Amino acid sequence: MKHSLTVAAATLGALAAPATASAMVADIGKPATQIAAACPGKPCLAVSRTTGFQAKEGDSRAVDVVPQDGRIVAWSITLSDPGTKQTKFFNENLGGEAIAQLTVVRPGRKLYYRVIAQGEPQKLTPYFGQTVQFPLEKSIPVKKGMVIGLSVPTWAPALGVNQPGTTSWRASRKKGTCDDFSSATAQTGVNNVTRFYCLYRTARLLYSATLVTDPQPTSKQTTTTTTTPTTTTPTTTTPAPGT
To answer: What are the E-state strand segments in 68-186?
Structure first.
């Protein structure tokens, strides 16, 4: 007696693993090579009473420009170690102890920029001779094309000098005041609009910002289904005696 044994069709759904929409972490404004700050050499030069950003380094004119939408979560600054007399001179002539804060600006026309956001002011004296990173108490949302600047209401020993002629930075000083290093021009208020007219060549501002970019969605993948065809296997059985 023959019977038919039917093997049921098996449908295998090969489901693709979920794609990952990842954010990236990037340093904005970090020097391409290690640069020593000017002090305690002579002359001991410092950034004083202004807001600045790196305008050019080598062939790049986007040193401190935000490359992609995201959030600034921290910033770093490399400080030289001025001597006691040098520190005393700066403190007495430039408004007090060394302080700096991160400043985000949006470019306009004819070198005018609007302050969009700022980090908390940080006292720098305890970190002289070091590179220090300050996490922001609240991250700052930024858009592609904005510029990350550094506001120094007093002074900061964070300037690399004797750089190539292709290196330059801009300061929030007006035309005709580029040699005035003691007047207060630092931007310390949101929505301020000012002109960054003054350009200083062969010098490098020694700060950078940490950007976490917005995650980018990935394209959806098609689910693949594989079907195993139905098969019928003939089977012969032997009846028991007497049946």
So the answer is: 70-78, 99-107, 112-118, 122-123, 131-142, 147-156, 159-160, 168-171
Greatest CA separation for the chain: 121
Q: How far is the C-alpha of 51 from the C-alpha of 40, rounded, in Å?
A: 23
Global pTM reads 0.81
pLDDT in tens, 176-187: 999 999 999 999
Rg (CA), the chain: 31
The token pair that represents 218 in the structure block: 């990935």
- Residue the block writes with tokens 């949302």: 141
Find tokens 């600006």 and name the residue.
Answer: 105
Structure confidence by residue, pLDDT tens digits, 181-227: 999 999 999 999 999 999 999 999 999 999 999 998 877 655 555 55
Q: Rounded to whole angstroms, how far apart are CA atoms 125 and 19? A: 47
